[in-house]
Amino acid sequence: MRTFVLTDASNDSWVESFKLEGEPLGAEAFHGCSVSKRRLHGGRREGVDLVEVDNGAVAFAIVPTRGMNIWKASAGADRVGWDSPATDGPVNPAYVNLLNLGGIGWLEGFDELLARCGLMNNGAPYRDGDVLHPLHGRISNIPASYVAVHVDEKPPHEIVVEGRVEESFLFGAGVRMTTRISTVPGSNRLTVRDEFENLKDQPVEMQILYHWNFGPPHLEEGARFVAPVKTLIPRDPRAVEGLAAYDVYGPPEPGFAEQAYFFELHADDPDGRTVAMLRNKAGDKAVALRYPLAQLPCFTLWKNTAGLREGYATGLEPGANYPNPRPFEKARGRVLTLPVDGRHVAETVLEILQSSDAVAEVETEIRRLQATAAAVVHPSPKEPFAAES
Question: pTM surpassing 0.85?
Fold first, then answer.
């Protein structure tokens, strides 16, 4: 394994630009692959670091400046991601005030394929006395203190971008996230493995939700969400309005008001893994998420089929909890507690499918999981998943 350190705040080390490609990576298998780092300039992206990985089949860009989020990806000619109204992104956290607009300032910088939500909270804003806790927490707006690239010279020649992000302060949170975002040459997959570590001398609480976001070509009129549903609950009355067609998407509709649905999913018995998929209308392009339910037992589907310039997108969101205000989630036992020196691991795998046969294979897998039991669909918000109207 060869390691290249790009950022190490503890040793006052930082590399402004970096590039590895082809044979210099050390093996024939890396032909057509590259890993590079650059700093962006202009507008609100000023000072943002970008690490770009191309495995020869899938390319993706990681933003160490924004909590090691994944900005965009592509597979051949297909974009994987969405078009945010934050058109000058990725936005430097210095230009994001999380407390703006009553606590929804997080949206000012939101334009990633993967945006992590947490760690003190990850749902709607709420007040605790005089303290306003903002939408989706702070982790996506904290720069990484350590970034390194690892390249394995032995098969399967894994390429890994490692990053560490600390959400820790006096009299408050104390969690370090160490992420390993990995792929192998020629693969249609990338894996995000996060380990959360308690940095304090007493137990700490945390929440985590993975906001994976997609637009065209995977999202379009007639696109479908496919998953092995155990339980389905609309988040609120607005979601109830679209419940009959929760799994089907409409065309861009300026002024569309978002809808969100909460799920429990079925999983394989041997390893407890599940899969959820967004496929286009024709069924020849799709993105699928795979992850263990033991790590991320809750799933949220976010539908935002607004105008193309308003953020036409959908979110597939595995989480340790649902994105309700933290007090609601804590009262229902869905806030994690890390003991002293304790850890929690969460891993999600993004799979990009580019043929009808590949999409049909995953649909068959989901049907097999669904066959274990029929879905229970609640017609309105219901405890303990959502506040009842």
Answer: yes
